[in-house]
Design a protein that fits this description.
The protein is an alpha/beta fold and 273 residues long. It has 2 domains: 204 residues, 2-enoyl-CoA Hydratase, Chain A, domain 1 (Alpha-Beta Complex); 50 residues, Orthogonal Bundle (Lyase 2-enoyl-coa Hydratase, Chain  A, domain 2). Helices cover 42% and strands 14% of the residues. α2 links the parallel β3 and β4. α4 crosses α5.
Length: 273
């Protein structure tokens, strides 16, 4: 697929996806949606990619849905989106096939490099990243109540899990903009760095994962952590113990032991299946 609304690059072991509509503060539209999904699949299929970074071009991360699209949706009486048939399936897997939950399916760690405003759908996109690194110019806002809308696309489920119910309701009730330092205090972001150090810091973390962590182990850890949000403790324990038993038979386990004994970095194989 050729990309018009995003950029896709691979640097060392990190795929970097840049939302690229800077003249519209990277407002989300149908083309960007399709291209972003394709880019995540592309990164998953590349065994040399160990982590994925998503950021925005220009002075914003994502200012939310393109307002022109919203006007079209309103005139039509609803959102014109073809539903994934798997979204109505039973069991845990349905959670990964809702309208904007697709980033949770990615095999690789997904790191948000939030370089500016992340509002509305931009906030939602950031929440579906595994971790959020923020520049000191980052800003976050729900924006829904101020235009008579409610928290959609899972934000009412994800946001309380990241920041707690009180902080989540504050953001959703008020639609106020939360600055980078407050976002760090409430746990919305994992790290706060000077603006010009945002991408270097995020790339450095991706490089650390590439050098120290088994890609297969990270893939399984990610699935276990998100699956556990949709089940009970006993099921989570039983599932993880079964995966652990399988992991003991993986080549990465022996390589990890050898690297530890030899005091060197491990040489793990990538994943692409």
């Amino acid at each position: 697929m050729d990309y018009a609304d995003i950029l896709y690059d691979v640097e060392e072991a990190a795929a970097i996806i840049t939302l690229n509509r800077p003249q519209r503060l990277n407002a989300w539209g149908g083309a960007m949606d399709r291209e972003f999904r394709d880019a995540l699949k592309r990164a998953d299929a590349d065994s040399g990619v160990r982590a994925v970074i998503v950021t925005g071009a220009g002075r914003g991360f994502c200012a939310g849905a393109d307002m022109g699209n919203l006007n079209t949706i309103a005139a039509a009486g609803g959102e014109d989106v073809r539903e994934d048939p798997r979204a109505r399936a039973s069991g845990i897997e349905a959670n990964y096939h809702q309208r904007f939950t697709f980033p949770l399916q990615t095999k690789k760690p997904l790191l948000g490099a939030i370089n500016g405003p992340a509002v509305g759908l931009g906030l939602i996109l950031s929440l579906y990243c595994d971790m959020r690194f923020a520049s000191d110019q980052a800003k976050f806002g729900a924006a829904f109540s101020s235009i008579g809308l409610v928290a959609e696309h899972g934000v009412s489920w994800m946001l309380p899990r990241v920041v707690g119910i009180g902080h989540a309701l504050d953001m959703l009730y008020s639609s106020r903009v939360v600055g980078a330092e407050e976002a760090l205090r409430m746990g919305l972001v994992n790290r706060l760095v000077p603006h010009d150090q945002l991408l270097p810091a995020t790339k450095e973390y991706a490089r650390y994962l590439a050098e120290h962590a088994s890609p297969r182990a990270m893939q399984k850890i990610k699935k276990l952590v998100y699956d556990a949000q949709f089940t009970d403790l006993a099921t989570a324990i039983q599932t993880a113990n079964a995966v652990m038993a399988d992991s003991l038979r993986e080549p990465d386990f022996q390589e990890g032991l050898n690297a530890f004994a030899e005091k060197r970095l491990p040489r793990f194989e990538g994943i692409s299946e």
